[in-house]
Design brief:
It is a single chain. By secondary structure, the protein is mainly α. The longest helix has 32 residues. The radius of gyration is 26 Å and the shape is elongated.
């Protein structure tokens, strides 16, 4: 119990530090997400170029590493899907389940980008590769690391400020119910007005 209390105290202190550091969480999360969209587009282009340069390399099949090129391109495609789904969630579907789903995917992709960074840093240091191939692999490593930082920052802000992002489903359902009742009352009033008009005629 004492260890749990210590962990909770450290977590609360870290949360207060983040809250003091970030004054406008929604704005900062929006900027971070927009930065990730730009980096995803650049990363897809760089991954395609790196895969093309590696396949045309004159080195051995071990140095070409088609699996690394495939993982870079496939991860970039997954990032594009994540960008589309994440944008839809942040703009329209800000429920607790949707935000939790987005948070889990962002956490997974954060680790994936760190793994890609390590792979392409190692590949850019191989002996026997041309400078063009090394440059493309270094660029892939750099943008993978940038995406790792952006997703980590966005995920951290989403964890700390999730209550500011999640819409209250109870309030929305009540507003929807009130709207339906109001529409029903207006329709009933119109029907009564029509009946009174028919009686006068």
């Amino acid at each position: 119990n004492f260890h749990i209390f210590i962990v909770m105290g450290v977590g609360e202190g870290f949360k207060k530090y983040i809250c003091c550091l970030i004054k406008y969480p929604k704005r900062d999360m929006t900027y971070a997400w927009l930065a990730s969209l730009v980096l995803v587009l650049v990363c897809f282009i760089v991954a395609a170029v790196a895969a093309s340069k590696a396949s045309k390399s004159e080195s051995s099949i071990q140095q070409k590493a088609p699996a690394a090129s495939f993982s870079a391109v496939w991860t970039s495609l997954v990032l594009i899907v994540l960008s589309i789904v994440g944008t839809a969630i942040m703009r329209r579907y800000q429920t607790a389940i949707s935000i939790g789903f987005l948070l889990g995917i962002v956490f997974i992709m954060t680790q994936q980008m760190l793994i890609l960074f390590a792979i392409f840093v190692e590949r850019s240091q191989l002996i026997g590769e041309s400078q063009t191939v090394k440059s493309s692999q270094q660029a892939m490593a750099v943008f993978s690391f940038f995406l790792f930082l952006i997703y980590a920052a966005f995920g951290l802000m989403l964890v700390v400020f999730r209550d500011d992002v999640i819409k209250d489903e109870t309030i929305d359902s009540n507003n929807m119910g009130e709207g339906q009742h109001q529409q029903f009352d207006e329709q009933e009033g119109n029907n009564q007005y029509d009946e009174e008009g028919n009686e006068e005629q």
